[in-house]
Amino acid sequence: MVMGLQSPTIPRERERERERERERERERESEWEGREREKEREREREKESGHCKKTVNEVTPEGKNVKLVIKPKGGTKYVQPLDVYGFRAWKNFVRRFSDIVLILNHNINLHARNNIIKLQFLVHNQFSSPRFQNFIKYSWYKSGYIDEKPNAFQNPVEYCYSVENEPRCHICGDVAIIKCAWCKKSLCLKHFFDEYHYCRNYIE
Ligand SMILES: [Zn+2]
Ligand SMILES: [Zn+2]
User: Fold this and answer.
1) What is the mean pLDDT of residues 35-51?
2) I need a surface site. Which of 121, 131, 148, 171 has the fewest CB within 10 A?
3) Ligand 2 mean position to 47 CA, how many Å?
4) Relative to the alpha carbon of 189, which ligand is closest?
5) 135: closest CA among 160, 167, 118?
6) Sign of dihedral through CA atoms 46, 52, 53, 55?
């Protein structure tokens, strides 16, 4: 009787034990695969950084010390300074300019390739003004590359589109649309865009 009661339970337990063993084996296998994949990625990263290091060394000017940091894939929006802070202001700057062209009904086709390039050059010139050094620095601070928080600063959109103090173009007296971040002069659409106000004359 006793044997009769025990016999069906023992195989079932053995079966469960075998199942658990198979389960553990599968876990070990997938762990091993995971480690192999990680090693493979590590090898790729090393190859990449070795290649980058070589390129950076080749173009580094004498007397300059360049620290190379390889960002993880997909991390651009967290660690690339312009993605973290700069590009949004750049896009806002361009959008604001396009709005002005529309509002003033000015005869510029901003979709024409030459005008796209011209506008990008002008925006780059404005953003390069020493006035916005802290603005640029801030994007490095916000991405975690420098510890020192830059002092208060104006961003290019705020600065360049506030022409209240000098609402007339200093050349022709027409309605000013922009204040140059270099020379601080107010300019109309014609004298900023058509005549290509590419400025290097910095007035503090
Ligand atoms: Zn003008
Ligand atoms: Zn200027």
Assistant:
1) 81
2) 148
3) 46
4) 1
5) 160
6) positive
Q: Which amino acid is at 9?
A: T
Q: Does 5 score more than 80 pLDDT?
A: no
Distance 88 CA to ligand 1 centre (A): 28
Q: Compute the distance from residue 192 Cα to the ligand 1 centre, in Å.
A: 7
* Structure token digits, residue 57: 């060394």
**Spatial distance between the Cα atoms of 199 and 21, rounded to a whole number of angstroms:** 75
- Grouping H, G, I as helix, E, B as strand and the rest as coil, residue 103 is helix
pLDDT of residue 153: 92
CA 92 vs. chain centroid, Å, equals 15
Structure token digits, residue 122: 């002008």
Q: How far is the CA of 198 from the centre of ligand 1 (A)?
A: 14
Report the candidate in 89, 146, 100, 149 with the shortest Cα–Cα distance to residue 123: 89
Distance 190 CA to ligand 1 centre (A): 6
Count of CB atoms within 10 A of residue 183's CB? 16
Q: Which amino acid is at 143?
A: S
- Kindly report, residue by residue over 83-126, the tens digit of the pLDDT: 999 899 999 999 999 999 999 988 899 999 999 999 999 999 99
How far, in Å, from the CA of 173 to the mean position of ligand 2? 16
How remote is the CA of residue 180 from the centroid of ligand 2, in Å? 5
* Cα–Cα dist 117/191, whole Å: 17
